[in-house]
Amino acid sequence: MKKMILIATAAALMSAGCQTTKDNPNTAKGAGIGAAIGAVAGAVIGHQTGRRNEGALLGAAIGGGVGAMAGNRLDKQQKELEKIAETKRTEQGLITKLKSDILFDTGKADLKPAAVTNINQLAAIMKKYPENVLTIKGYTDDTGASVVNNPLSQQRAEAVRRQLVSAGVPAATATAIGMGSADPIDPAKTKEARAKNRRVEIEITVDESKIPKQATK
Fold first, then answer.
1. Are the beta carbons of 121 and 164 closer than 8 angstroms?
2. pLDDT recorded at residue 57
3. Out of 53-67, 105-119, 126-140, which region has the weakest mean confidence (pLDDT)?
């Protein structure tokens, strides 16, 4: 009887998750990842209680529902962020890109006044999603030596992080990394290509345990 209840519960949760993902493939990705994680966790608990299969099934259903919710919230956040800065969806979450020429003067790591305004607008959106985990990466172009570019990229990433935190993003959820001239968007040695490569990217991933409970209802 307990097995039948577990299966019925799992089926209901999976059905709800499928309905949610019909309109959005990104939400479906979140559901799939959540289901996989939930299945593993459920199988471990099930093994400890002598009900491995039932535990995996229920864990997959619950994990899928949480994963779908995470994906749905990322989609919603993307729509808000892309009104302010270029934002794209990835397998892991979101990436918001800020051009360094807009943020900083050449060779400097002090934010321009307009950049402060833009970052504050981004922070106002990001702090509405407590599950966010931010990695702020600074990039330079390939002109100049690494001994200059590497610390400059770190300082720029830290400047963006400080402003996000100042505007209300929890400090513990944001990390700054200097990438120097690594991972260029355009490898060409032209002025236009180098302008693309000078940037700060905010990578957003999700800690599903911090999704507000009311959002999952």
1. no
2. 43
3. 53-67
Nearby residues of 177 by Cβ (< 8 Å), 6 or more positions away: 135, 136, 137, 138, 154, 157
User: In this structure, which CATH number among 3.40.50.720, 3.30.1330.60, 3.10.28.20, 3.30.230.10 belongs to the domain 82-213?
Assistant: 3.30.1330.60
Domains in the chain: boundaries: 2-74, 82-213
Q: What's the pLDDT score for residue 68?
A: 84
Pick from 111, 74, 68: nearest CA to 89: 74
Q: How confident is the model over 8-21, as pLDDT tens digits?
A: 434 444 444 444 44
Which one has a higher pLDDT value, 28 or 211? Answer: 211
Whole-prediction pTM: 0.73
